[in-house]
Design brief:
single chain; 300 residues; binds adenosine monophosphate
């Protein structure tokens, strides 16, 4: 195992990264909230392909949690996380305390308009400003050439790309496909909240998304038909559905049911199974389906 250097201090992290740059190395960043799973580690793999020196951050960012959300019980596995990151060849891990990122007197926010009001933004009105503020800070602290995010959080990825472009941030923002469990469930730190019975019900989301791919591949373009193919199994399995939306994959504008889809269509889902809010998505015409569309066993 190669040990990764772990730091909680901004000045130390800057120093290490300045030295790496002085040696001619490019810096790649993987921001996370910890409780790492294999999905996070594929972000590390992609970053290693794109940069010489990989820094991962573990910070449960309080400003992106709303009242009543799971900030206080967000899963933690510091030792396990550091071991996984080191085994995967991360060079540096930044694990700041809350006071390091938000010292007393902190008053600034970075907010992207429009994009953040759709999909998850409707139920979580303060969430994305928390994300863009902390990610701006991480970019300013570390100055990466490339920063890698998961398509699992598709809206977050689009919002961060918009922010980086709008504010001329000198960083390439890269999205990595969603890594899934064998039965299609998107990997998530929050999956550990699911009871075995809820875990089985969680499959309905990826089953619905896979069924939509199947229809799309067969030439169906009616947005209502594609969306309802996802909505019906999710409604049947979930305790509540925040949304099952069809939207433009670039601007996230909702597309009404009576419209014909173009070459690409985003289907995005947020639903509660028990008390756990799961999100998932796919871009028809672009992403691979959650599992092969000719695999009938998954539909049982
Ligand atoms: P989080 O720790 O949940 O904030 O996630 C950190 C990063 O990992 C974000 O860019 C997520 O989109 C990404 N991520 C989370 N789950 C997955 C997954 N199943 N596949 C790929 N990336 C993921």
């Amino acid at each position: 195992m190669t040990a990764a250097y772990v730091s909680t201090r901004i000045d130390e992290v800057r120093n290490i990264l300045d030295n790496a740059r002085a040696e001619g190395k490019t810096i790649g960043l993987v921001p996370t909230m910890g409780a790492l799973h294999e999905g996070h580690l594929t972000l590390v793999d992609e970053t290693k392909r794109r940069a010489d020196f990989v820094v991962a951050t573990i910070f449960v960012n309080p400003t992106q949690f709303g009242p009543g959300e799971d900030l206080d019980k967000y899963p933690k596995d510091s030792d396990g996380d550091l071991e996984k990151l080191a085994n995967r060849g991360v060079n540096l891990v930044f694990t700041p305390d809350k006071q390091v990122i938000y010292p007393s007197g902190f008053l600034t926010a970075v907010a992207v308009k429009g994009l953040t009001e759709k999909l998850c933004g409707a139920d979580r009105p303060t969430h994305f400003a928390g994300v863009t503020t902390v990610v701006s800070k991480l970019f300013n602290i570390m100055g990466p050439c490339v920063a890698v995010f998961g398509r699992k959080d598709y809206q977050q990825l689009q919002v961060i790309k918009r922010m980086a472009a709008d504010l001329n941030m000198p960083v390439e923002v890269v999205g990595v496909p969603t890594l899934r469990e064998e039965d299609g469930l998107a990997m998530s730190s929050r999956n550990r909240y699911l009871s075995p019975e809820e875990r089985v019900r969680g499959r309905a989301i990826s089953q619905g998304l896979t069924a939509a791919h199947k229809l799309f591949n067969e030439g169906i373009r009616n947005v209502g038909q594609l969306r309802k193919t996802v909505l019906l199994p999710v409604e049947a399995a979930a305790d509540s559905v925040d949304y099952v939306s069809a939207a433009d994959p670039d601007i996230l504008e909702t597309i009404p049911d009576d419209v014909e889809a173009g070459e690409r269509l985003l289907i995005a889902v947020a639903a509660k199974i028990g008390t756990t809010r799961l999100i998932d998505n796919t871009v028809l015409g672009e992403d691979a389906p959650p599992y092969p569309t000719d695999s009938p066993t998954h539909f049982k």
